[in-house]
Design a protein that fits this description.
The protein is α+β, with helices and mostly antiparallel strands. It has two domains: 3-229, Rossmann fold (3-Layer(aba) Sandwich); 235-361, Beta Barrel (OB fold (Dihydrolipoamide Acetyltransferase, E2P)). 23% of the residues lie in helices and 35% in strands. It has helices at residues 41-49, 91-100, 106-119, 135-148, 165-182, 193-199, 217-222, 227-232, and strands at residues 3-12, 15-25, 30-34, 56-61, 64-65, 76-79, 153-157, 185-190, 202-207, 210-215, 237-249, 252-259, 262-266, 268-269, 279-284, 290-292, 305-314, 319-325, 328-334, 347-351, 358-360. Strands 6-7-8-3-9-10 form a six-stranded mixed sheet, with helices on both faces. The chain has a six-stranded mixed sheet with strand order 13-12-11-15-21-14. The longest helix has 18 residues, at 165-182. The radius of gyration is 25 Å and the shape is globular. It starts with a strand and ends in a 10-residue tail after the last strand. Bound molecules: adenosine-5'-triphosphate. Adenosine-5'-triphosphate is lined by residues 12, 15, 17, 35, 37-43, 191. Adenosine-5'-triphosphate (ATP) is lined by residues 12, 15, 17, 35, 37-43, 191.
């Protein structure tokens, strides 16, 4: 089922929780709503479920206006952060519970319960009480219960936030597998960008009640529209600068920017009409910095900068390297740490490919989400 929000507002008195929301969730997508606390994610999800009234605008399911359709008639399955399982009912009874509210024959009920127990790999646990299950298993019961009603849309509100890191990883794989198997259009709300990047078929980032960008995980990571997005999805170095030259030829546009750490050349601009003298923001992902730790290795050839080593953090498979120039800190990472460790304060040569230097417009109004 395709879901569309058209110019939707949600107001609580003077508070505008959601502002002019235009959102398209394609049929069969695992669509993520991502954004900082208070940006309007849960409100959006609750409007979709019919648990909150839409103040203005339209909500469409497969092109049909359902803005005022009662929640019970929308065919929506929901999974919340706190699973909301009945503690005195077995896994099987918990799953059946949602079906009892619908007038289905005992045979159909039994078939559905058996099916979802299988999909969520809970068959061996069907006679246990929730208190006899791990957090991840309880999570799967909540998912099974939502799936049993064969929803047209599945809504997941921070479903993994009560689990520890290892279990969260496991459940990410589980949810992705179940989504592929069932093909149900799913809207997943989280503030965890790693969850969204690793699982989503599409992601919408919200800020202060508005959507600011929608795209595939790769689009959002490699082509963020604003400095806020660049820093919110993954880590990045944001360096302010002023454009000193713009060259356009058949290969594209190349731009030179004067910054506190030196002149930086970019062939990857998101600026609409770049001009000399214009202020902009440079975004460079830490993994894109080529840091010359070993003095016998070749000097970087492009965008050569000299930065002082400030701090090294050993992480096993990689090493985080904090570099410094005046008050500006620049983060890098090295995935094959060498045994050679320079002293703090050592000046290192650092390079970056012009295509890995993303130029963005300055953030004008941080509160408005632009
Ligand atoms: P979180 O990640 O912290 O759950 P969120 O992005 O889901 O946040 P919402 O719960 O949708 O954010 O809230 C959006 C805004 O609307 C917030 O400023 C919140 O304070 C406000 N809000 C939500 N519900 C109500 C309500 N019932 N009455 C008044 N304001 C509300």
């Amino acid at each position: 089922m395709k879901v569309e929000f058209k110019d939707v507002y949600k107001r609580y008195g003077k508070v505008v929780a959601v502002e002019k929301l235009n959102l398209l969730i394609e049929s069969g997508a695992l669509h993520f709503l991502l954004g900082p606390s208070g940006c309007g994610k849960t409100t959006t999800l609750r409007m979709l479920a019919g648990l909150e009234e839409v103040s203005e605008g339209h909500l469409l399911f497969d092109g049909k206006d359902v803005t005022h359709l009662p929640a019970a008639e929308r065919g929506i399955g929901m999974v919340f952060q706190n699973y909301a399982l009945w503690p005195h009912m077995t896994v099987q009874k918990n799953i059946e519970y949602g079906l009892n509210l619908r007038k289905l024959s005992p045979e159909i009920k039994k078939k559905r319960v058996t099916e979802v127990l299988g999909i969520t790999q809970l068959t061996p646990f069907k006679d246990r009480l929730p208190g006899q299950l791990s957090g991840g298993q309880q999570q799967r019961v909540a998912l099974a219960r939502a799936l049993a009603i064969e929803p047209s849309v599945l809504l997941l509100d921070e479903p993994l936030s009560n689990l520890d890191a290892k279990l969260r990883h496991e459940m990410r794989d589980n949810i992705t597998r179940i989504h592929k198997q069932t093909g149900i259009t799913t809207l997943y709300v989280t503030h965890d960008q790693k969850e969204a990047l690793s699982m989503g078929t599409s992601i919408t980032v919200m800020r202060a009640g508005r959507t600011i960008q929608t795209g595939s995980p790769r689009d959002l990571y490699t082509r963020p529209a604003t400095p806020f997005l660049a820093g919110f999805i993954g880590e990045t170095n944001l360096i302010p600068g002023v454009i000193t030259s713009v060259n356009r030829d058949t290969a594209g546009t190349s731009i030179t920017v004067d910054t506190e750490i030196g002149s930086i050349f970019s062939t990857n601009s998101q600026l609409k009409e770049p001009k000399s003298g214009q202020k902009c923001m440079i975004s460079i992902r830490p993994e894109m910095l080529q840091i010359r730790i070993d003095p016998s290795s070749p000097e970087p050839s492009k965008n050569k900068l000299r930065l002082a080593l400030d701090r090294l953090t050993y992480l096993g498979e990689s090493e985080q390297i904090q570099l410094k120039h005046g008050s500006l800190l620049v983060r890098g990472s090295v995935f094959r740490p060498t045994s050679h460790m320079p002293e703090e304060g050592t000046l290192l040569s650092v390079g970056v490919e012009p295509s890995d230097v993303l130029l963005l417009a300055e953030e004008t109004d941080l509160s408005s989400g632009t």
